[in-house]
Amino acid sequence: MAKTSIFNEISFNDQIKLLNDFKARSSTFSKGVTIMSNLRTTRDFNIVKSGIVNIIRFNYNGTRTIIETLEEDDVFGNFSSATSEELYVIADTDAEIISFNYDNIFQRYSKNIDLHYQFNENVVKILANKLQSTNDRIQILTEKTIRNKLLNYFNTLYKRNLSKNITIPFSLTNLADYLSIDRSAMMRELKNLKDEGLINQKGKKIQLLYYIN
Amino acid sequence: MAKTSIFNEISFNDQIKLLNDFKARSSTFSKGVTIMSNLRTTRDFNIVKSGIVNIIRFNYNGTRTIIETLEEDDVFGNFSSATSEELYVIADTDAEIISFNYDNIFQRYSKNIDLHYQFNENVVKILANKLQSTNDRIQILTEKTIRNKLLNYFNTLYKRNLSKNITIPFSLTNLADYLSIDRSAMMRELKNLKDEGLINQKGKKIQLLYYIN
DNA sequence: TAAATAGTGTTGCAAAAGCAACAAAAATAA
DNA sequence: TTATTTTTGTTGCTTTTGCAACACTATTTA
Description:
The structure is a homodimer. Chain A is an alpha+beta fold. Chain A folds into two domains: 12-140, Sandwich (Jelly Rolls); 144-208, Arc Repressor Mutant, subunit A (Orthogonal Bundle). The first copy, chain A, has helices at residues 12-21, 113-141, 146-161, 172-178, 183-195; strands at 25-29, 34-36, 44-50, 53-58, 64-70, 75-76, 87-91, 95-101, 165-167, 199-202, 205-208. In chain A, β10 and β11 form a beta hairpin. The longest helix of chain A has 29 residues, at 113-141. Chains A and B meet through α2 and α3 of A and α2 and α3 of B. Chain B binds a DNA duplex through residues 144-146, 171-174, 181-185, 187-191, 203.
């Protein structure tokens, strides 16, 4: 399933009409600024129009973890991520955000009906996509051993690029966090996998040497 | 966020119209029968019209695990659950299932426009809901210790019912599976929690004795 | 109602994972 | 370019978890 953008099949002019119907407002944020400090309680539907934005969790011990990285036309809202901890939305670069009340999506619009149909289709597809990737993550997290978590994760990267040469899209430290395992234990297991000839690894570059069906 | 049914705010007559537009077909299955054997590859959008249906994963070692239990007006499709293993949909009681091609949702319908708007709204809300509960599950699975997984899980049940007397909605065996931990280790930790006076527990009935903020 | 199956509760032991701590490399900022 | 911070890589030790096995209790099914 290809990734759908929120404005898929919607011309620039139509985007303006749509955002007008939704009574959307636009805000700009400079690098490093906190865009939202309580993501799980927002009633807004938000679209990143430019720049890069991170969804961040602050752990009880003070460390911060990147939950998701968003770029142009990615969306966020209270549906976005884990619920029971405080999630911050932080501008990683200068960024422009468009926001409107979530319920406005569901209004009946007598004009621009096809347009709203298309938008709805995009929303449904984006949510279905997000659901699939959270399900991928659950699949990985339910693996019991670090080795199986790693291999399962490598497999999802393999499937995404159809190449045995994969690059971890974030730091190994964040990978350990994403897999919810201890970093040093993960490094140890990576070493084991190397020693057993299952992978080559140097930093974030990994080559899969085993058979994948 | 209250659970939304797929036919929320749609009268019985309108349901018929809608299903007609979608070229939906209805099938009945008797208890125990396999409704679908490859959930992740289906292109259909499915609605449980009556009965109870389980989504089941068969583990490599032959044990089967209930991923999700569905009842009237619950939906399933390739968006439903984890992707990389084979998922079966099995009738737990006699059941009636309505199915139609997923893409038909997105057709432009010149008649019954309000109706389709409402349906779309329901689909979006259901997906957003599912996304929240998978995110809850991720939250639990990312906890590192069995103790924290249990406590986190208890908290979500507490929040759902706002009562410190909670009942695990499935067997302890399935709970261990849901939390992706060894059953005997879970029992041991439940015993620890009891011994330390944090909970009372007898089978699936649990009373939380600690302070929840 | 009896028999069969599934679920609960417990434990010793082995294996895996986490913690802590440190050195070295890499990336970023001054 | 140098200094500072972050990330990577490694290891000994401790704790937690999983596995295996068994008895006992509930729940289904015949």
